[in-house]
Fold this sequence. Notes:
Blueprint: H1 7-36, H2 43-50, H3 54-61, H4 64-76, H5 79-90, H6 94-122, H7 127-153, H8 163-173, H9 176-185, H10 190-205
Amino acid sequence: MVDSSKRPYxxxxxTAAAEATRRKVxxxxxxxxxRKGIDATTIAEIATRAGVSEATVYATVKSKSGLIExxxxxxxxxxxxxxxxxxxxxxxxxxxxxxxxACVARAIYEGESAGLSxxxxxxxxxxxxxxxxxxxxxxxxxxxxxxxxxxxKARRARPGLTRETAxxxxxxxxxxxxxxxxxxxxxxxPQEYEAWLQRTLVDALTLEKP
Length: 210
């Protein structure tokens, strides 16, 4: 008869082993993508670098696209993003929620800068990366739509704006390109970027001043 009391420990051990394998595969992919580019890297090379079989790589991330998505998920939606997003969701004031979009954007792009900058430089023209970035942008717009809806339902949107225009402005102002130009090219601090973005969003989208 099997001792069922041991099963949770075995399950925990399997989970820990699977997570360790996932970490090795992701780190191998990040390293190779950053050095060689996404398109020039093969699954076989990732497997060798991670010390696992090709079948294990496929079982873990399905494909190179799946690996890119996993790397982006870890970098962009890590603990800082989760904390910022929770702050937005818990805020009852729709104008304040719009302002807090600046905190969310900062968390996303600081995570990207720390975890994906070399990869993105090495693979700037990769169709695989472009596909993942497009999916990220669609998700970002979807997450922001709730804030825009709340603003209009409370009748706190700037007069003359439609929901579609307000959503487009929120998406544009919180985009990667503006963060890059202000923080990386113009040498603003992330704090300066966030403060500017809060003021800009409230001025552009709402009836109130920050």
